[in-house]
Amino acid sequence: MDGKQWTKGLCTDIVEGIRKHYCVTLLLVHRLSPSRVQFRAGSSIRGKGGSVHLATQLIAHPLYDYYTIDFDVAVVRVSVPFAFGVAVQPISLIISEPAAGEYGVVTGWGTLSSGTSELSTLLQAVNVTIASREECNAAYSVFGGITEHMICAGSSGGGKGACQGDSGGPLAVRGELAGIVSWGGGCAQDSYPGVYTSVASLRDFITEQAGVK
């Protein structure tokens, strides 16, 4: 794509005049210059339709840890405001962490199975269930468990969840942004729920960097 890095992100519903310029994403942008990051809005087809917005500023969390993948979030300012309408809508940031057992929806254009490299052409969506911290820490005990800035979600029996290429995509709970696809053991494995950046725990960073309280 002309050497550009296409990055998934979520436009946050903050205040008018600011919210149309900012998106939240993962630290896929950590080692990139803004000129290499673009967003497409208003299309469910990968690489086609909608509007393209170039990044002008990448604000990575200063405490991001490459090894533990902690604080895995960044705020991106784009050059041209997003025009909200039927096909483009902001999403509110959740205030408190969702409880275990709550249902959520994760979306993305990632691969449809683990180990493949072919991305989906059409936007995919699956229902997942928030896992308890105890369950998630047990699943990832060999990695030291998860941090307070992470949450987990998956499906009973596996088979549904985020996969390669979905990183940076949203996990919505009750219509609010609760998580951002971060990492996990394979794709939609029964024994390894997907790990997401916890938006509630990093909400202050997101709003502060976007210039709102």
Automatic annotation (TrEMBL):
Q: Which GO terms describe its molecular function?
A: serine-type endopeptidase activity
Q: Which InterPro entries match?
A: Peptidase_S1 (IPR050430), Peptidase_S1_PA (IPR009003), Peptidase_S1_PA_chymotrypsin (IPR043504), Peptidase_S1A (IPR001314), Trypsin_dom (IPR001254), TRYPSIN_SER (IPR033116)
Give the Peptidase S1 domain ranges.
1-211
Alphabetical UniProt keywords: Disulfide bond, Hydrolase, Protease, Serine protease
* One GO term (biological process): proteolysis
Q: What top-level branch of life does the organism fall under?
A: Eukaryota
Task: Please tell me whether the keyword Disulfide bond is annotated for this protein.
Answer: yes
What is a single Pfam family found in this protein's UniProt entry? Trypsin
Query: Which protein family is it in?
Result: Belongs to the peptidase S1 family.
Protein's name in the database:
Peptidase S1 domain-containing protein
Q: Which organism is it from?
A: Cryptotermes secundus
